């Protein structure tokens, strides 16, 4: 019997090198539709030719199903589907195109995306290299080059993206003139990008104040609407492709979507390293460095919260230390696989700030997040009597209609509570 040979994608695959920066276009799956509006332009300023993929048709999902096993991970399926759909479109020179994926390096299937993506591309586009953007030492021979300067800019971009997303979602459902919130978003993104181009991006108090003022200038109605928080696995929490445009659906249902800040996830990843030192005796030097970074970022977050409170039009983002306090009521901070303790922490913080209605969005089969999400619902309802949570699975076989019907049942209860109030 002829012995099977190892597939080329495991031993032979194209590698990215620095010289490709000037010749290749890098395709990025759209996991963060708000923040990538800024980050895409930021990377272009650094000399990279990047494009955030916007494909969200059923073709994307079908392409993902062809190349990724259905039980692997829905976010992986979506990401691969966007890559394949884009590369098949004929818009790109396949000899000068690469794809980029972000990885946290935690106990998640995302840490194994690289071989899955390589396998998918090897079937049809064997010349396309895959880059990994991570801070965990993964894929050292195919890692995106990260400088301290770029890392600092990305941190500021996340803060600004959070503020724009936060203000938009508190403006769009109430806009007196249709489309006014979208105009404000475009203006806010434009002057934020200009600040990066001029090298003034560190003046976060001024930029954040401009973002708040831009949205505060939009005329809004006084109508009371149901507020609905969105928590869960990071991809389906933010990606319009992953959650079937959940924010748009909630707005169409006369609700205000409340999406926690991306910086919370960043701080979650950082503080977990500090916790690892306390709980498991990991590197003291690494923990000390991460603790310093945490203090710097958290201080900026607190200053931004003060700006929101002083201006008074919009509710501020959650203080991450308050999130940690909320987590301690439900789940130990040593539970950090996937989004871990962050999910129940966000649900508790939402309840404490007048948002008891929550969609807990998870990819089907994402075991760590199902345990930390669905598994914490009963405890949360015992802590907060009005907590109204619906857990929704997202996968290629789940229809949008069924997902939305489940959410509508939750909204019916939410409206009853609002009417009584």
Description of the structure:
- It contains 17 helices and eight strands.
- The protein is of the alpha/beta class.
- Among the domains are: 139 residues, Rossmann fold, CATH 3.40.50; 140 residues, Rossmann fold, CATH 3.40.50.
- It has a four-stranded parallel beta sheet with strand order 2-1-3-4, with helices on both faces. The chain has a four-stranded parallel beta sheet with strand order 6-5-7-8, sandwiched between helices.
- Helix 3 packs across helix 4, helix 6 packs parallel to helix 8 and helix 8 packs parallel to helix 12.
- It starts with 7 loop residues before the first helix and ends with a helix.
- The N terminus is likely disordered.
List keywords for this structure.
421 residues; alpha/beta; Rossmann fold; 4-stranded parallel β-sheet; globular; disordered N terminus
The CATH C-level name of the domain at 224-260 and 318-420 is: Alpha Beta
Question: What would you say the CATH architecture of the domain at 224-260 and 318-420 is?
Answer: 3-Layer(aba) Sandwich
* Low-pLDDT residue intervals, each spanning 5 or more residues: 1-7
CATH topology of the domain at 224-260 and 318-420: Rossmann fold
Mean pLDDT, as a whole number? 92
**What is the global morphology?**
globular
Radius of gyration: 21 Å
Proportion of beta-strand residues: 5-15%
Order of helices and strands: HEHEHHEHEHHHEHHEHHHHEHHEH
* Alpha-carbon distance between the two ends: 75 Å
Number of strands: 8
Q: How can the largest sheet be summarized?
A: 4 strands, parallel
Estimate the helix proportion, in percent: 40-55%
Number of helices: 17
- If strands are numbered along the chain, what order do they take across the biggest sheet? 2-1-3-4
